[in-house]
Amino acid sequence: MHTCFFIACLLAANASFAQSTAIVGGKLPGHPRLLLYAGEEKAIKANIAADASWRSIHQSIIAQCDSFENRPVLQHIKIGRRLLDKSRECLRRVFYLSYAWRMTKQEKYLVRAEKELLAVSAFSDWNPTHFLDVAEMTLAVSIGYDWLYHDLSEPSRAVIRQAILEKGLQPSLESKFNGWLKATHNWNQVCNGGITYGALAVYESDTVLCRQLISRALTSIRLPMSDYEPDGAYPEGYNYWGYGTGYNVMFLSAMEKIFGDKVLSFPVNGFLKTAGFMQHMTGAAYGSFNFSDAGTGEELQPAMFWFAEKRKDPSLLWVERSHLAETEKKKYLTNTLLPAIMIWGKTVSLNKLPAPRINTWVGAGKNPVALMRTAWSDTAIYLGLKAGSPSVNHGHMDVGSFVMDAAGVRWAMDFGMQSYESLESKGVDLWNMKQQSQRWSIFRYNNFAHNTLSVNNEWQKVDGKAVIRRTSNDPGFLSAVTDITGLYEGALKKAVRGVAIVDQAYVWVRDEVVAENKEAVIRWTMATTADAKIVDAHTIELTKKGKKLWLVVQEPALVTMKTWSTNPVQPFDAPNPGSVLVGFETTLAAGSGTAIHVLLIPGGSAGLIKKEILSLESWPVK
Questions:
Q1: CA 491, CA 590: separation in Å to the nearest integer?
Q2: C-alpha–C-alpha distance, residues 538 and 208, integer Å
Q3: Which residues in the chain land under pLDDT 50?
Q4: Burial degree of 79 (CB within 10 A; 0-12, 13-18, 19+)
Q5: Is 433 exposed, middle or buried (0-12, 13-18, 19+ CB in 10 A)?
């Protein structure tokens, strides 16, 4: 049976590779061929002239290019095991400068771009032991080589072309460097994206090799595409959506440009739905739902402009417009793929975007999520629930965790990731995902620092999995229920969590739990940056930005209200200033069960609480 299965898989793989090879034709269009053909700048210029918002973004890119003049060119200096910050800064500089040259034809942008390209081409290598560094550098140099091709000197072209071949493409053939070909996560998308740009850029120099690499990418990139199934929920979370999906979209956009729609002939149903996931992952207070290895903020997502164009749905850019409208710090100027939005958004008026039509989004997959809000305003109530498993790539022990916004404040928050280098440099075994590995002793990574349950002072089970069982999009009862029992194997016979926004006014968090045949001490935790005060035996008052929220325990009757410090526990933990953990503990006798029912009541909503408390089985499904 196993032999037959292997043969079937091999035949399927060969068939998909043959199909991929057939897509890649012989001769390619001349340079520039990546994303934007010669003369297509006209459409971008027309959009800039017609729309003040686009004009502002264009001018900001140009001003950023002017600022590069006073900075030294990049040097081959690694941080720990990574050269990644240099690769990313190279991409940012070269993409911006190449855009500025094509749009303005001002010589200074060409000269500076050529200087940057020659500097990194002279590096001894692009750090293939951490292949993301190679992929991003290859993307950067390939865009510069292609977009500036006819304006670079022939000696410069030769040096840059040779660097793409020797430092980018050829290392990707070595098995010790290309394990990402079999990965389903962001590494596959980023590495295939970068290497494919290199192959497209220097195609004429070694057509056999480049065709092989492009066909290989078309076969390999199907693996991470499956991670978006069935609804578009991306298991690695917010920031890695931007990273992996961003490079996947760069790959697809360039390939479609050259080879047509047949590039998308393999199943991409979940992938095309994933823009809804990202749109709803931004809260009402404009912080992201930053579960797993994600940062604490939110940022521009260039890939959303490709999805908006592909799906003919400009409302997908509702959140992105808010990032672009931020005129003071202009954080979007740190985004390495920013010039791509000028291409993908060239038919969109940012001043006339329709609001999103729905207030809820639910997705299954490796890390299911339910995302809901009362409105698309910054004062709305926003609630996000995560199911899934800690075993997913970049996972935390955060199953059952939630975030909540109300009145422009994030009340229930997630600490997000800690800098990898800050842990690796101290010898932490960060990437070991086994149950007792050191990874889970990191404060921000285990369940004690997340908005979920902890039982008997134990970690959640790494191999445990939770799905979302039922949801409602009834405006009076937006809700989701997940069975998290598998995360507490050996301690709880049953653990089911439901979250709901009730009457557009306040939030329920309900857990129904049954202990195994031993006593279970249950800790209910919520992380917050608000000031916390225990008011009575069942109430904690939170205050932030002059606003208030009350955490009220309605069931069980016997709880001990608590706050916990967020100070580092281990020498390698990062500090968490201005934060506190709030919640309570309750004890279950062996074999007994209880309901844990918590209200999160924003200021002014207390008088609106009218709903009868319902068991999770009685929660509506809609």
A1: 10
A2: 71
A3: 1-18
A4: exposed
A5: middle
